Each structure stands twice: as structure tokens, then as C-alpha cells.
UniProtKB/TrEMBL annotation:
UniProt name for this protein: Helix-turn-helix transcriptional regulator
InterPro entries: Cro/C1-type_HTH, Lambda_DNA-bd_dom_sf
SUPFAM superfamilies: lambda repressor-like DNA-binding domains
Signal peptide per UniProt: none
Gene3D superfamilies: lambda repressor-like DNA-binding domains
Length: 145
């Protein structure tokens, strides 16, 4: 990771150097030195930033996103037929719209392991983590009705 990439990340998530330092458990001066490339950015920091970016993209309002999952035609599927699966990909304005969509269809899509991707195709939500979030969203909807 270069100093410019670090600065770009900081600007995208809206952090000051002080806030970025607090998130990464370093001083503002350390962030400043990394951005100026006075000192090298450790690999552990790069990994921490990847994690923080994923968390930032998991916000309900983050988008646009794509929902991808495999759909199987159960009517024709047999234990030996693997050619009946279809990859489905739908675009949504944000994560919350996907949660709403999946929460309404949890009994249907629970077995197909859906994933949410950002515009670059990076996985934001997946597997049981996504299904738990959809169940939580569905529970909130039921409480509000």
C-alpha cells in the first residue's frame, strides 16, 4: 500500500488523520508519515484497512450493490444433475434494499447462499453472516408492523 492509497482510503471513509490513527491504534503523526511515504506501511495495517473497508461497506445505506446467488430448478433436479443451476445477479441501490428483498424471501433463498458484492465485485456480505443480518432486518420489520 502506498501513502497515496492510504490517503484515498481515509478520504473515502471520511476520516481525518487523527481518526484514522485512532482506528489503527497509531498516532496522527504516524499516519502523516505513512501518507508522505517517510516510513513504510506495515502489512498488518493494510490488512486492518481491508477489514475496516469491508465493515464500512456493510452499512445499510452503502450502495449500489449487487445480490448474487445460485438458483436451482428443484422440479427437475436429481442427485446426478448438476446442469440445472443458474447464476442470478440483481442490482440494488444499497444493502438495506437487499436485506428487505431477502427478508421477504428467506424461506426460498436460505439454501442458495446469496452474497452481496460492491461495484468492483468484492464480497461485502456472504453466507450465514448475510442470512443473520436479513433475519435481524426481518425481525425489526415485524416489530414495526
Amino acid at each position: 500500500m502506498t501513502g497515496e492509497e492510504l490517503k484515498r482510503w481515509r478520504k473515502i471513509v471520511g476520516y481525518t488523520q487523527q481518526q484514522a490513527g485512532a482506528e489503527l491504534d497509531v498516532t496522527r503523526a504516524t499516519i502523516q508519515n505513512w501518507e508522505r511515504e517517510s516510513t513504510a506501511i506495515p502489512m498488518a495495517v493494510e490488512l486492518a484497512i481491508r477489514f475496516l473497508v469491508r465493515c464500512w461497506k456493510q452499512r445499510p445505506e452503502f450502495g449500489p450493490v449487487a445480490l448474487a446467488y445460485v438458483s436451482t430448478c428443484l422440479e427437475f433436479a436429481t442427485p446426478s444433475s448438476h446442469d440445472m443451476a443458474t447464476m442470478i445477479c440483481q442490482r440494488f441501490s444499497n444493502n438495506q434494499d437487499v436485506f428487505r428483498h431477502l427478508a421477504d424471501r428467506m424461506d426460498v433463498v436460505g439454501a442458495v447462499k446469496p452474497i452481496i458484492l460492491d461495484e468492483e465485485g468484492v464480497v461485502i456480505w456472504s453466507g450465514s453472516e448475510l442470512m443473520k443480518e436479513c433475519a435481524r432486518f426481518r425481525s425489526q420489520q415485524l416489530q414495526q408492523s
